[in-house]
């Protein structure tokens, strides 16, 4: 397994590139400590009930505002999230910009998210801290890049997977953000196959069967188009 690291000693992202994947994925195991993980989970579950939005396969919380094409009406991030948005921004994950939005997703075992791209509302980088459980993230070629003569099934577009362990930081940029889709199968257990390309950066092994528990992900991004509340009220 790669050397344990915590947020204090990640200065050079280059050494965390997943070389087996198209550009660019960074996978940083043990980005946060167990104490930080527990604290973050406590904060997520302290949020009032209306902060949660229930979707069919997961539930979520939006922090920082609601991204939309007209511009996100920004809300101040709470200090417990700001600590991490600032540290990840300082790594240069969003070029010289600062993350201003966090989506919290909660997945129970058996839940997942359909393959998708995160799209143009965000600076083309997504960074994710995982809490509580591992998951396996699957990547797919976009529809336009696959042979049009053969049926374009999810299976024929699948390219690789990543084991994303709790306490890790994952960064997707470049083609992996802009072109390839990512998704999580709604299963209760992951059997690690040779398609999981980052096993050497984890403490798991080929063939392991890993039961999932509840996973909370903090998806940290920069939304470039924002609207200040006082502009909406017609003030200067
Ligand atoms: O939970 C994750 O790691 C993925 C979340 C995601 O893809 C999204 O919120 O768009």
From TrEMBL:
In terms of one coarse class, where is the protein primarily found? nucleus
List residues of the Fe2OG dioxygenase domain.
Answer: 98-224
Instruction: Enumerate the cofactors the protein uses.
Output: Fe(2+)
Assigned keywords, A-Z: Dioxygenase, Iron, Metal-binding, Nucleus, Oxidoreductase
Pfam families tied to this protein: 2OG-FeII_Oxy_2
Location in the cell reads: Nucleus
The protein's name in its UniProt record? Fe2OG dioxygenase domain-containing protein
């Amino acid at each position: 397994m790669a050397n344990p690291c915590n947020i204090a000693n990640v200065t050079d992202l280059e050494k965390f590139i997943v070389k087996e994947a198209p550009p660019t994925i960074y996978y940083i195991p043990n980005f946060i400590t167990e104490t930080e993980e527990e604290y973050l989970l406590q904060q997520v579950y302290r949020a009032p009930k209306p902060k949660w939005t229930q979707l069919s396969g997961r539930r979520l919380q939006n922090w920082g505002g609601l991204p939309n094409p007209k511009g996100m009406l920004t809300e101040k991030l709470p200090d417990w999230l700001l600590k991490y948005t600032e540290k990840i921004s300082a790594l240069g994950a969003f070029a010289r910009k600062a993350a201003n939005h966090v989506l919290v997703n909660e997945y129970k075992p058996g839940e997942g998210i359909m393959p998708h791209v995160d799209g143009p509302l965000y600076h083309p980088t997504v960074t994710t801290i995982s809490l509580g459980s591992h998951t396996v993230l699957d990547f797919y070629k976009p529809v336009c890049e696959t042979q049009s003569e053969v049926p374009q099934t999810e299976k024929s577009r699948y390219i690789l997977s990543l084991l994303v362990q709790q306490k890790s930081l994952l960064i997707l940029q470049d083609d992996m953000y802009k072109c390839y889709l990512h998704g999580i199968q709604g299963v209760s257990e992951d059997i690690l196959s040779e398609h999981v390309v980052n096993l050497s950066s984890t403490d798991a092994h080929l063939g392991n069967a890993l039961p999932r528990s509840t996973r909370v992900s903090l998806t940290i991004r920069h939304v470039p188009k924002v609207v200040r509340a006082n502009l909406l009220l017609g003030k200067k």
